[in-house]
Queue: 2 jobs
Job 1
Amino acid sequence: MRALHFSENGLRLSQIEVPNAEKGEALIRVRMAGICSTDLEIVRGYLNFRGVIGHEFVGTVEDSSNRDLVGKRVVGEINLGCGVCAWCTRKNERHCQQRRVLGILGKDGCFAEFITLPLRNLYRVPDRLEDRIACFVEPVAACYQIIEQLTFMPHDRVAVLGDGKLGILAAQVIAHWVPGTVLVGHHERKLKVAQACGVKIAREDELELKSYDTVVEATGSPGGMEKAIGLVRPQGTIVLKSTYHGDLLFDAAPLVINEIHLIGSRCGPFGPAIAALAGKDLCVEPLIDATYPLDQAEDAFIKAKEPEALKVLIDCK
Amino acid sequence: MRALHFSENGLRLSQIEVPNAEKGEALIRVRMAGICSTDLEIVRGYLNFRGVIGHEFVGTVEDSSNRDLVGKRVVGEINLGCGVCAWCTRKNERHCQQRRVLGILGKDGCFAEFITLPLRNLYRVPDRLEDRIACFVEPVAACYQIIEQLTFMPHDRVAVLGDGKLGILAAQVIAHWVPGTVLVGHHERKLKVAQACGVKIAREDELELKSYDTVVEATGSPGGMEKAIGLVRPQGTIVLKSTYHGDLLFDAAPLVINEIHLIGSRCGPFGPAIAALAGKDLCVEPLIDATYPLDQAEDAFIKAKEPEALKVLIDCK
């Protein structure tokens, strides 16, 4: 099969074997997949991953011990726990210390014709959820993780820093709880897309310092932390949603003096993400910049790396 | 009166005017005061404070609009809010943005014969609580702030990093909730004192990585953060109790990947601290290394700066 393979030789569309489904796994024919910033980080050397990359996808079950699933469209949680440790038995395999992660850690990913995933990772996709929208389930789930971790009140002051894909999605999700949520960024085009999706935009210099109950740091840049510390109120919360690659340098004294909460946030629950996207409660269509066939996956990455780019999809059919 | 004054010329025992009590303030004759690590940081330039330093004290009310207090022994909360902002009206003047802080920010401190403090900041000291022990109320209150901020369960795994004064006190306070709390440090003598106080000691190399529900970072050194991140379990909590002076550099990726909570922790409630010290629920006597008269306050600071030093008191009577 064709697959986008990353190794010391770089990113190459390669011909490799169709993966064998392990016990409890389904074989899935990938329909459509999305490029995430983490994929771009991996190509820069993050986590030392070698193999087929990609973890945002929608596919059709090709083979499965659960015959009912065959032929059905699915999306899948990307963390594969060991199944026996305390984390896995408490249904929190996202934190299993032996976990593999689709296209990120020890498991071939979805920029390919086929992948395998455990049946327990799969979620049926409602018919009304198109492939190109279903590719957003995984990143939207990551935004719902913020809702799982914090308690919001409707009149909270919430700022999301970073006008990338994740920032725009997070601002939309949080706005369901806190309508006044603002997005802060400095990419003209991305901000226009966000605005077209109904996201409230604020210029950085308009923001009152030390006044935000919650600041979501989704810039992915080291300066984002200092900005977040400047904006959050005493005893307020900063959510770290960026994948930091390399060391972070900042003045930590305000964290102590102002008793700030900082909380890391990674993968989230698929259920609410599927429901929100199927119910058209979120606007994601304008975030799609381009769709490339799998054969042009290398070009898709070149496009996704552009500073003003948002979501780039790969059609794997 | 005599007072230990800090300015660009350094730390000098000086002759200054007795302070005037403002409206709502009492005039207090300082009996005994303790040197805190924050005082040592101030002398190194932290917060650019100029004036009389010191914030841990017990004194006798010399003059007050509340005549019942005159002649009584008191300790005092160190944050002086503006009294009218949203923080102050919600009884959280520790976070008032216009606050002054005794001996730290805009308010002369307690290494002096007299100080003034608002009546609302004062707490009566029970007769059975001796002066030398009452000096610990303020730092012990800071440890009870951790109890206010988190929820502990008896079988949690808790590690306190740093065998300084604050670490030893924090380990004792938390051990009331979590008996298995361990203290980690590398100063032979300090660890012996901690052990004499009944604190459980653990060597750093015995600690299981990624296994602690809560790690209290009280080393005051930049490396403490990396150690705390290494020890805390996924979705566990790191309490930042150190005053960091200068920038902190660390790999923040695990904060996100392991969804770690980080929470800054500063001043705390005096009530439980007084009760615990008066009830002899905490062991602090062995932490006292020396007591100097106010006339030798400069020498007291030299002693307090020794790497193996714990609490140094100044007798201001």
Job 2
Amino acid sequence: MGEEPATPLQRLRAMGLSLPAAPAALASYVPTTTLPVGDGRVLVFVAGQVAMKDGVPAHRGRVPDEVSLAAAQENARLVGLNILAQLEHAVGLDNVVRVLKLDAFVRSADGFEQQPAVVNAASELLVAVLGEAGRHARAAVGVIGLPGGVPVEIAAIALAREMPR
Amino acid sequence: MGEEPATPLQRLRAMGLSLPAAPAALASYVPTTTLPVGDGRVLVFVAGQVAMKDGVPAHRGRVPDEVSLAAAQENARLVGLNILAQLEHAVGLDNVVRVLKLDAFVRSADGFEQQPAVVNAASELLVAVLGEAGRHARAAVGVIGLPGGVPVEIAAIALAREMPR
Amino acid sequence: MGEEPATPLQRLRAMGLSLPAAPAALASYVPTTTLPVGDGRVLVFVAGQVAMKDGVPAHRGRVPDEVSLAAAQENARLVGLNILAQLEHAVGLDNVVRVLKLDAFVRSADGFEQQPAVVNAASELLVAVLGEAGRHARAAVGVIGLPGGVPVEIAAIALAREMPR
């Protein structure tokens, strides 16, 4: 398989991906908050991320009747990229020690039971980019509505080394 | 604009608001839990708050067809007041270092996409009362049902200085 | 009432219950993550737990029209057992200092408002087994869908003493 890329950003590049700018909060809140928890480490709370493209939702609607499972997975992957962008902006991806938890919400048609298959696309991206540090606990549930009609929203909690200032 | 009120409780008073008694848990749980995280600080988990009035829900139903957007915002503001009441009771509002995260659930009709507009009413109250310490990360989603038929439920995580006992 | 059983596992046995094996994650995530928070203590994030029986959901469907309130409570109790199983596996039940928070999701029919009555079955089990250490903050909401059609999913955050290795 060749040499393993050394850093998260190199791994992203090797996957043909690049990090978007960390999205601004869409309302009266902030994208991330941090608190020191000793030993030069901080806990990072990442606000619920969604996938926008040029100011409008990248996908829009219920899974699977309005947004197919495959499209929802693509959306979840974009959401995962935004989580990485927020972590890069807040603490630097090189400093992420562990993604501790994802709270994942999938806008679901009545009877849709494959929320895990949707959210896996985000989870797998985090592991591909961050390696073991990307392996997280997770809750994935189906909701009746999400902001702006997006199909996927994911919030995260991570542990990081404090960035040298 | 005159002099800035010095404390969270003074700011509340200047807004014509007063803090309700911290609501008791409605079931088999407690309203807040805390854990020390070093340097005389504690992490506070606030259970999901709803808005009751004289023992019944202040508003009841789905947003926006049963509860209007404006009424849902008024409800979210009452929920925000209850979060402040729980923080005052648990650690004292003067000791709040940062509201780290809100998890906000809005009972939504199919197709309702303005959960952020509802939850902003709570978020903006926290910032008005706590200042920079009130600026939080947040997830806001639309759910099919909430306890007792309320339109809004919000849980919170905050960092505070330990109260001298 | 006789002598109080001394340990969580003894209390479980006295209730006629035994701990299942900690369920493996059903998708691209891990069942628990932990982080040290000083003084030999760790914070534990338990991924959303559901109740499976021989590889299929123990119950399946919406509450209360497809799964009765009583059956949903039985399901929530099984989910609570799985949370205990994850804590036993990750840190040992004897080391649990406090269950800090439950995030509870109940697959709900439109108009169902008794999510707390469902989730109480899990909350009460935690208190019965862990005593004061089991008393937690909680959010309980009604969702339109859950993985595999289960009626209840619950995630948890706990504080524990580090297991001697």
